């Protein structure tokens, strides 16, 4: 048979989503792919029931329903402290996965360079490859996951067309400081580079850290493509509702791509999700409290077990350092063992690094998420409390 497209040679299926399939196979507690095991807020569930009887069940306007865009504009205008016209500045997508792909395809020509901080959410590599763009990786250096200013400048100097900024960051939990965002903004303006943000964890930030929107920095409104989603904010990852906010010219470009990629996000779910967009500030305050509690519970459990990790400032992931524990050649083998023998699923850290990184970097971590009910987290911690004795048996 004739060979399938060459682009398939440059990336694998998602390791994150693959770990969920393996976890299900072995009935492990799934702390790999990040999604809650608790229900969305009641108003969304009530609205979903209403939609079954009253619709809509047919296509919405391809840019997203008017009501959804209206409510989203109202909510984000307050947060982002800028004017957002629902007809000109918003595109509703199938999750932020489509938003990011659409943004990269809108900005990049073949061979254009895209700066990606590493460790990175694995989709970005594929986003660049599927758009025929070339990633330039700039390391975020543990334990604080700060970048080296000279290294970042050097990446811009290579003529980058865009930079992707995931803030708060998946997988390392970094929340970019004002000073860091100022520096990125200055470089983006100096080198005329687009900034594509992934801000899906904008409401999951732990005190004293604060989320700042890059679009809001001086001179950045016209070059920032803000991507986000409702998945994490309303615990509806399966509804696949995301969006892009940007200046009209950019959104017009994104609309063209989106029109032919997916036509539109699910109409009934957009309608039901309006109940979420209409929630008041106390909902977001409570969400922060909920995740602050889960983080504290999970991290103190890891402390008791004696696993070392990097404390997340935002999002709901924690990178655990397995460099002194791992008897296997790779982090993937470690994670497979963890699922089968300990009964807990994590994502191997190498999913978040480029293949050519040294083994000491890319095999050093595993990622857990803690967006689970308290009882699920306690079950996982109980299982993990046997990890060291089981590893001992393994090496004998
Ligand atoms: N953001 C989630 C994670 O990092 C997964 C998202 C997805 O699979 N689309 O685990």
3D structure, described in words:
This protein is α/β, with parallel strands linked by helices and 396 residues long. It is 43% helix and 16% strand. The chain is built from 14 helices and 14 strands. It has an 8-stranded mixed β-sheet with strand order 2-9-8-7-6-3-4-5, sandwiched between helices. The longest helix has 25 residues, at 281-305. Bound molecules: glutamine. The site of glutamine has 7 residues, from helix 1. Glutamine (GLN) binds next to helix 1.
Topology, please?
Layout: H1 15-26, E1 29-30, H2 42-54, H3 66-80, E2 90-94, H4 95-107, E3 113-118, H5 123-130, E4 134-141, E5 146-147, H6 149-157, E6 160-166, H7 178-190, E7 194-198, E8 224-229, E9 241-245, H8 248-261, H9 267-277, H10 281-305, E10 309-310, E11 317-321, H11 331-342, E12 344-345, E13 347-348, H12 359-362, E14 365-369, H13 374-384, H14 387-395
Parallel strand pairs: 1-12, 3-4, 3-6, 6-7, 7-8
Antiparallel strand pairs: 2-9, 4-5, 8-9, 10-11, 11-14, 13-14
Helix pairs in contact: 2-9, 3-9, 4-5, 4-8, 6-7, 10-13
The structure holds glutamine (GLN).
Residues 16-17, 33-34, 97, 121, 170 line the site of glutamine.
């Amino acid at each position: 048979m004739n060979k399938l497209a060459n682009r398939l040679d440059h990336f694998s299926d998602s390791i994150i989503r693959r770990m969920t399939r393996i976890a299900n196979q072995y009935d492990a507690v799934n702390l790999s792919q990040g999604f809650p095991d608790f229900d969305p807020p009641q108003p969304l569930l009530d609205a979903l029931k209403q939609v079954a009887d009253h619709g809509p069940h047919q296509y919405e306007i391809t840019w997203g329903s008017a009501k959804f865009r209206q409510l989203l504009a109202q909510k984000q205008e307050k947060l982002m402290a800028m004017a957002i016209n629902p007809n000109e500045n918003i595109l509703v997508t199938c999750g932020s996965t489509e938003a990011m792909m659409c943004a990269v395809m809108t900005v990049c020509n073949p061979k254009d360079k895209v700066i990606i901080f590493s460790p990175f959410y694995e989709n970005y590599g594929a986003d660049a490859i599927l758009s025929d763009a070339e990633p330039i990786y700039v390391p975020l250096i543990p334990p604080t996951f700060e970048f080296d200013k000279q290294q970042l400048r050097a990446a811009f100097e290579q003529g980058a067309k865009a930079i992707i900024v995931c803030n708060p960051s998946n997988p390392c939990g970094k929340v970019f400081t004002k000073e860091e965002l100022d520096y990125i903004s200055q470089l983006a303006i100096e080198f005329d580079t687009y900034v594509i943000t992934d801000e899906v964890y904008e409401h999951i930030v732990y005190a004293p850290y604060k989320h700042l929107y890059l679009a809001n920095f001086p001179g950045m409104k016209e070059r920032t493509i803000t991507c986000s989603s409702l998945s994490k904010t309303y615990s509806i990852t399966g509804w696949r509702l995301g969006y892009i906010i940007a200046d009209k010219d950019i959104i017009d470009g994104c609309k063209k791509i989106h029109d032919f990629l997916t036509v539109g996000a699910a109409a009934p779910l957009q309608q039901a999700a309006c109940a979420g967009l209409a929630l008041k500030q106390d909902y977001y305050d409570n969400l922060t409290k909920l995740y602050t509690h889960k983080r504290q519970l999970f991290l103190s459990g890891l402390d008791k077990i004696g696993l070392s990790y990097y404390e997340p400032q935002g999002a709901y992931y924690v990178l655990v350092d397995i460099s002194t524990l791992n008897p296997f050649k790779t982090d993937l083998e470690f994670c497979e063992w963890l699922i089968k023998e300990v009964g807990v699923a994590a994502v191997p850290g190498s999913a978040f690094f480029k293949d050519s990184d040294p083994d000491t970097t890319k095999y050093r971590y595993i990622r857990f998420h803690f967006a689970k009910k308290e009882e699920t987290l306690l079950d996982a911690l109980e299982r993990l409390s046997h990890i060291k004795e089981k590893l001992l048996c393994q090496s004998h």
